[in-house]
């Protein structure tokens, strides 16, 4: 096939099974967009490059496939940065194609030139600058391979404008030949034997499950493991959905805003099985006092995560798809005896959970965010995708919305990117059209990418946008209230912006809920409407996300009651 | 403690940036870094000297290993490797003291590579201590400039960086 570089990219997308891409055109990618036009390749035009990259990320999280987005050179590419960093820290597979100025112009401070490889090096799994069209098939093949294998992550391909236009004889390689990367992560059987031995000796074990279980699709093994020996499970924010939220042994999320039972279980356990986690500072509390009485066993695909934040007693490095089934198999002869050893602990932890569930004080007059989220959780089906933005509403969604399967909770965990939710929800819906998609956002976050409402309206993407509207930057004010003497520096929105009208102006139906009884009367009807809808729920300004482990404190030093 | 690490990387533009930006991002401090060609045109070889606890060494090796363009990583033990770096020293001299200075240089096996009416340039290789002692002795004559290359390291015997399976066991990579 004698085609130009741009067409070679499209053909490579087809070979990689790409069904949909997100992007925004501009000078350096015009040739690529011309081929998208000619081939009618499915493409979603967002209103901002940041919307495109978050949408590709949401698509990837919902489907497990590689998300693809396109941006032009210079400002187009730099607008992707937040989205690339978001995907990188949460290990989400993306391939981002950026246009670069033509080869003779590189390095001349040309119009719309930016050093994309230089800028993205610290926030990508890998990146490429392609100057010659002949390299494109190999680079595309490698990029998809690197993005999706091992610990997934974003790969940027920066393509010089003339490489899009130059003609090549297109042959897509069958195999990837990389000298420093194989994508193959076998586990060491001897380590698993040691893990089995540790569990046999344990009396107070806890499973600490993370996003690695989502990306490796091993939640069934995890549930089997927990059920076979009655081990309590807690999870990170990224691991929500791995455990069955209705199972008695699931303690909820651990960490800064984790459940009482989860944090106490971590502090009291004698064996902690960390599976697909990276011991992030939001979850460990003061790191030297994390699980102080426990032997820690760390299952992870990434060797560099071992002993990075928390020193562990045993590491099982390798693909969870191999290590977890093998662990189960080797554990099978001992399940009854382990169960017996750990019975008292299991009962103790389950009791803690029953005595201290996530809770809030009801307000007789006002709708509370926690209440609205709980209500929506009961109204929604088990296979609903919930996307969030970042802040108080995100934590409340993690606490009060039951997530039944992985890939159904779409949130910026590591980077904490405000403005992530709306485009990510849009991408998730496009990736999983059969599922109901809800977005919980705040009146702060929603404004950070509200332009994407126009995209949602144009393509009639059926998501339900729930704005928890407290007229303040909730999480910021909570910290200012607790640690900065209530000096609310620049965190109160005295805004005249009408979010319902913004939605309507963009072509989305908008509703406002203010009265408590409207949760019963109006909300169910609105949620069942066809097509995209925005629901602006007015809640009080002063509410704290609780429990809370203040920075630098141990997990058992939770603040249980706030002023609100 | 001081450590020496050799890193075999694909000989492509941007690879050095990737390695260096990883150090900077993860707050690894390095003492010296040198990069050059190898026996194969496919690869460049980076030698890094740095100080740090065992924990840092471990993280550094693992994080380097994650970079797709890194083909092999080797941590050298001082007893199993040779280290070399070069120093150029420009010192003031006149007809009166030139012979004295040359005598000192001879003791340290430093080579004279440039002689001018009022200056000398020496080339000296070897361990830090030796270079330091040499510069101390030259100091009274008036050192005008000192420049040092980063040190490089090579394993003694038949062991090479490509026979080092460490990266293989870390990441299951088909190293080469």
Key terms for this structure?
heterodimer; A: 564 residues; alpha/beta; Rossmann fold; 3 domains; 24 helices; 16% strand; globular; B: 176 residues; alpha+beta; Alpha-Beta Plaits; 5 helices; elongated; Acetalactate_synth_ssu (chain B); ACT_dom (chain B); transferase (chain B)
What do these coordinates show?
The complex is a heterodimer of chains A (564) and B (176). Helix content of chain A is 38%, strand content 16%. In chain A, strand 15, helix 17 (392-400) and strand 16 (409-410) form a beta-alpha-beta unit. In chain A, helix 3 crosses helix 18. In chain A, the strands form four sheets. Chain A has a six-stranded parallel sheet with strand order 3-2-4-5-7-6, with helices on both faces. In chain A, strands 11-10-9-12-13-14 form a six-stranded parallel sheet, with helices on both faces. Chain A is α/β, with parallel strands linked by helices. Chain A folds into three domains: 2-169, Rossmann fold, CATH 3.40.50; 189-355, TPP-binding domain (Rossmann fold); 369-538, Rossmann fold. Chain A is globular. Chain A has 24 helices and 20 strands. Chain B has two domains: 2-81 and 154-171, ACT domain (Alpha-Beta Plaits), CATH 3.30.70; 86-148, Alpha-Beta Plaits. The radius of gyration of chain B is 19 Å and the shape is elongated. Residues 166-176 of chain B have low confidence and may be disordered. In chain B, the strands form three sheets. Chain B has a four-stranded antiparallel sheet with strand order 2-3-1-4. In chain B, strands 7-8-6-9 form a four-stranded antiparallel sheet, with helices on one face. Chain B has a two-stranded antiparallel sheet with strand order 5-10. Helix content of chain B is 29%, strand content 36%. Chain B has 176 residues and is α+β, with helices and mostly antiparallel strands. Chain B has helices spanning 15-25, 54-66, 98-107, 128-138, 166-171, and strands at residues 2-10, 32-37, 43-51, 70-76, 81-84, 86-92, 111-115, 119-125, 143-148, 152-155. The two termini of chain B are 31 Å apart. The chains are: A alpha/beta (564), B alpha+beta (176). The A-B interface holds A 117-118, 121-122, 125-127, 129, 146, 178-182, 184-186, 302-304, 306-308, 317-318 and B 9-10, 13-14, 17-18, 21-22, 24-25, 42, 55, 58-59, 62-63, 65-72, 167, 170-176. Chain A: Pfam families: TPP_enzyme_C, TPP_enzyme_M, TPP_enzyme_N. Chain A: Its cofactor is Mg(2+); thiamine diphosphate.
